[in-house]
């Protein structure tokens, strides 16, 4: 289901243009992952599940400088859009999702089996153990910021691999996960192809009509400034993380980890 390397680069290039931003901004909708507070801001609501991600920002020392650039970009966007329209993701929870697993209603339904969580954790651990020898390398995959993307409910930073080998390593991980019969039996299957991104914030409600073309140019300027300042992004670890909402990604000491 995932793109080839060249198709991936071409798709991301299209998603990160001002013209695409402008057309996407005309159709944004309020994210249900955040709710309005009395003071006009937005706070996360319960949205439980599991993902395979890189360590969150507060734990990822290898990418501290990269995440600071992302936080500066986020601040600029948040000041432009306002708290009612743009709910920021705390920089300490910034991360790259390597593979979505299960979330929200599907996870709540799976929870009727009291053994679901340990089954999932054990299954991911077995997959990581099987593929670790094939993914070990002297140098971890290196990616780089390639722009901003406007999604229906969010704005995110997009990433491109620095070479085809870096892309193939992540695709190999995803293939091992999504082709696992054991994971399929737990109700987990691939639903999205890879769009490597780090979410900066989610949309709320606009208090006034948006000038989509002007905002598109603003976002492109933010992206160009951030790309000029951002160092490479290292993908050194893939971790199973349990999330309770879109700002909290936790792991127990026994949760499986894959070195990349």
UniProtKB/TrEMBL annotation:
Domain DUF1868: start-end pairs: 42-104
InterPro entries: 2H-PEstase_DUF1868 (IPR015069), Cyclic_Pdiesterase (IPR009097)
One family name in Pfam for this protein: 2H-phosphodiest
Protein name per its UniProtKB record: DUF1868 domain-containing protein
Organism: Phormidium yuhuli AB48
Taxonomic placement: Bacteria, Bacillati, Cyanobacteriota, Cyanophyceae, Oscillatoriophycideae
């Amino acid at each position: 289901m995932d793109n080839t390397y060249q198709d991936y680069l071409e798709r991301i290039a299209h998603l990160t243009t001002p013209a695409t931003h402008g057309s996407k901004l005309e159709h944004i909708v309020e994210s249900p992952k955040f709710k309005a507070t009395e003071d006009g801001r937005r706070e996360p609501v319960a949205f439980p599940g599991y993902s395979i991600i890189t360590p969150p920002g507060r734990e990822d020392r290898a990418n501290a400088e990269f995440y600071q650039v992302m936080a500066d970009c986020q601040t600029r966007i948040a000041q432009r859009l306002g708290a009612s329209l743009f709910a920021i993701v705390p920089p300490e929870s910034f991360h790259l999702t390597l593979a979505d697993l299960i979330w929200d209603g599907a996870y709540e339904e799976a929870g009727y089996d009291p053994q679901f969580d340990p089954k999932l954790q054990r299954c991911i651990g077995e997959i990581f153990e099987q593929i670790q020898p094939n993914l070990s390398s002297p140098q971890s995959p290196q990616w780089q910021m390639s722009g901003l993307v406007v999604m229906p409910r969010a704005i995110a930073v997009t990433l491109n691999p620095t070479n085809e080998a870096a892309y193939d390593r992540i695709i190999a991980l995803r293939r091992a996960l999504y082709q696992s019969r054991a994971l399929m039996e737990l109700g987990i299957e691939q639903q999205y192809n890879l769009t490597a991104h780090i979410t900066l914030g989610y949309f709320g409600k606009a208090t006034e009509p948006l000038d989509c073309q002007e905002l598109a140019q603003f976002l492109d300027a933010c992206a160009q400034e951030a790309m000029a300042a951002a160092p490479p992004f290292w993908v050194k670890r893939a971790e199973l993380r349990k999330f309770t909402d879109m700002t909290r990604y936790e792991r127990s000491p026994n949760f499986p980890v894959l070195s990349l």
